[in-house]
C-alpha cells in the first residue's frame, strides 16, 4: 500500500509545484515616469563624468544619473522611487547609448516599496522609442525577467521626462 501511495504523492507534489510556477509566469506591467534635471541646472540629477571632446558628444562619454521616478509626467505627482545608473556612448556611429539602470522603488509604491528592478540595454539618443532588458530584481521583484519600453515624453531646457513601461515575469 505504502509503495502504491508514494508515486501518487510525488505526482501531486509535482503538479502543485508546476501550478505554482505557471501562476508566477504571468506578465506584470508597471507604468511610470522618469524625471531628469540636466547637468549644470540647479539640483541636477545627472552629471557628465567623461566628456572626451568638450565641443561635441563623443564615443566613450559617460554620464551618471539618479533620476526621480514618479507616477505621472507632472513633477508634483507621487514619488515612487529613483532610477540610478549610467549611460555610456558605446556606439561609434552614434546610434545608441548603452545604459545600466537600477529602478529603486523607495518611495510610496505599495507592495514594491523596498524592491528593485535591474535593467540593461541600448537607448535611442534622440529620445525615440527604446527597448531594453530587465535582467533581474530584488525583494518582491526577485527573479524578474522581461523588457522595458521608454521614450521621451517632454522636455524643457533643463528637464526631460521619459515614460516607461516595464513588462516582466517573476518565474523561478
Ligand atoms: C533645489 O532643492 C532644494 C532642496 O530640496 C529646494 O529648496 C530648491 O527649491 C530646489 N531648486 C530648484 C531650482 O528646483
Ligand atoms: C571635437 O569635436 C569637434 C566638433 O564636432 C570636431 O571638429 C573636432 O575634430 C573634435 N576633436 C577631436 C579631437 O575629435
Ligand atoms: C556618440 O559617439 C559618436 C561617435 O563619436 C557621436 O557621433 C555621437 O554624437 C555620440 N552620441 C552621443 C549621444 O553622445
Ligand atoms: C531656460 O528656460 C527658462 C524659461 O523657460 C529661461 O528663463 C532660461 O533662461 C533658459 N535657460 C537657458 C540656459 O536657456
UniProtKB/TrEMBL annotation:
Q: Which PROSITE patterns match?
A: PROKAR_LIPOPROTEIN (PS51257)
Record carries keyword Cell membrane: no
Q: Which residues form a coiled coil?
A: none
- Predominant location category: secreted
Q: Single GO cellular component annotation? A: apoplast
Q: Which InterPro entries match?
A: Allene_oxi_cyc_Dirigent, Dirigent
Q: How does it assemble?
A: Homodimer.
Functionally, this protein is described as follows:
Dirigent proteins impart stereoselectivity on the phenoxy radical-coupling reaction, yielding optically active lignans from two molecules of coniferyl alcohol in the biosynthesis of lignans, flavonolignans, and alkaloids and thus plays a central role in plant secondary metabolism.
Q: What is this protein called?
A: Dirigent protein
Which species is this UniProt entry from? Miscanthus lutarioriparius
